[in-house]
Amino acid sequence: MLSRSAEGLYWMGRYLERTGFICRLLQLQAEALVDRPARDIHAGWRRLYASIGREPPGGDLGDAESDDFTLADSYTLAGDLTFERSNPDSVWNCFAQSRENARQMRHCVSAEVWQRLNLAYLRIRDMDEPDIWAESPEKFYAGMTAEVAAIEGAASATIYRDEGWRFLALGRALERAQSSCALLLAQTEIDEEAGTADADTDWGCLLKALHALEPYQLRYGVAVEPGAALDLIVTDPLLPGSLARLFDALEGETEALAAGPAADAGAAARRAAGRLSALVKHHWPDSGDRLALLRAASDQSLELHGLLASAYFAYAA
Amino acid sequence: MDFDGYNLDFYDEMLLPDGSPREHCRPLYDALRELSPERMKSIQDGVSRAFLHEGIFFMVYGDEVSQERIMPVDCVPRVVPAAEWRHIEQGLTQRLNALNKFLHDIYGEARVIADGVIPADLVYECPQFRPEMQGYAGPEGSWATLCGSDIVRTAEGFRVLEDNLRSPSGMSYMVATRNAVKAGFRRLYRASRVREVADCGRLLRATFRELDPQGRPDPTVALLTPGVHNAAFYEHVFLAREIGAELVEGRDLLTRDGFLYMRTTQGLRRVDVLYRRIDDLFLDPNVFRPDSSLGVPGLLDACKRGNLTLINTPGSGVADDKSVYPYVPDMIRYYLSEEPMLANVETRLCRRQEDLEYTLDNLDKLVVKKVGESGGYGMLVGPHATPEERDDYAKQVRMNPADFISQPVLAFSRAPCLVEGAMEPRHVDLRPFVMQGRETRVVAGAFSRVALRRGSLVVNSSQGGGGKDVWVLEE
Q: Alpha carbon of A225 to those of A51, A198, A230: distances in Å?
């Protein structure tokens, strides 16, 4: 297929996944505002900003213990992450970018996917902060999360499994892997800094954000233990968004792509995906330095992105 | 819906002067009469919503910003009986045949000029004439492969208002309009035996397949778009999918050793037929505008070496130029030895002194158009303009008379439209699509544009016009 079309589908997948990821975290934050103490809300914002690598507006999240840090500041932070046009990772921008890539590649996606994406975009196009806070912001974020899931479901049910599908799937898996790594790294760093982990609140929230709380409880019981939670998210072969599954998917999709015109970069991409898969399967169980492995997984995911681009999108002709 | 107070001053496509329906429109008329205003509104809402959901936008270029707009579409179809359509189809086939012979001739031996049928300066000084194409002979003599002529019905019958041979657009809107309208009138549509328009992509593909530069049966076809910001991007996407072509931009293409290639995930792949939707001057910076980033260096060379077919062929625009237009009936007589089946609108060329004087003396009664413009831009509708606007326009005409033509204000037909909950007549035109490869194909339908503003004669979507479905009935 045309390189630009492949690239467009890849980015459509990435932005759609990013929209879902940020909405899910914002939904939990909005819910926390109703009944959680200021400390938990503060930790949530910190985790969220660290996981997307962005400084909060004003550069500081303020006092973690102050109860003043509730509605007013959260309103500003949610605005920055939801509708702020100058924030490339705001929900609005991610969704608009996903829709724009789909619009440009309209001939490569099914009518069902395009129409859902377009309709959802038209619904939020002219919305702003006050519109979603008038009732309950968590309702908006839950709605968006469901919308993203519905679009992904429509894609899964209707898009022909050709090369275009593979690039869409690669974009989604790589984005999800990078987001998960970033979130886990952010929480682990927060714990290291504090010298302790708030298992039930922080890790419970993190498990929820990654759709892993119920599977965790099934496997380990009700009390959340950070080490076990980390293991589950990284290695569980049955958890849909575990790193093990995502890296396996990346390896499978890169293997299935025919050797591109830049054969060296293509082979390097396949090796990089293989290394990621081996990292969680073979290195993780025996390693004492989980933080180092998470960093390696994050760096290697980024490297894989670059290799895919040089192999299939921007090769020298 | 009732038709009380419906104005019948002009020829109406549905109703006779006494208010009764024309025979071929009776089923539609009866169906409309039975519909409540609420149901009618719901049909209209359904049509508008279909365009919104599908994301069918066009861009309107303003002085400062361009805007994404949904094309307004009226839900009441215009019905064309089989015999009338046959006449239009034959007339357009004849016309495109002559236009292609004319293009082949002027870029070749130029007999039509030597024989004094058309003045040399009109052709060679036309801004659309491309001297670079002289001596080129494309496959099957098809220069203008796809043509979308605008037709209106006057008191004297059908008239061709203009031919569009560069990048005629509207085919996607025609199909989208049909899909939306037939969903609103399901039973009536089934009973009316309307000819299909959804096969337009198949017809276009069949035509393109006949035009491989080396006559091979299964050429690789790509559609070249200026990109997502172009007014007709939706159409480019639609057509690429319908004809099974890759949708490419200039940056996806490169030429090597006289061949055109596109960058795919599997390396470079040769392109045999390029349906381009960008203007001639942006096609190849080596030959035309050197600052163009939309085109591909070496494109024209690939075409002239016989390794690539460009559709429509660069330089085709000379045959749809507003100054050349008055000579089309003579071309038909000259090349085909036939009388034109579809007449032109009486047109005066301001480059001729007597026509210039007549135009300036009668500005308040005429429509004056700028030769190089399209889409309703740069046009003066004399009777609707203020004295100041007419004076300003007259100055422009005096300065460059050759840039202008004038035509009488046409009393062209109207058709019922749903306007603010009531049936009101609005002026309509007709844009059918004709394709010429080894054989000529006409899509059995058209995109009808409607001047939605009350009293307006301007049907262009950029100027407040909308769309209307055209139901061509089976024989």
A: 21, 9, 9
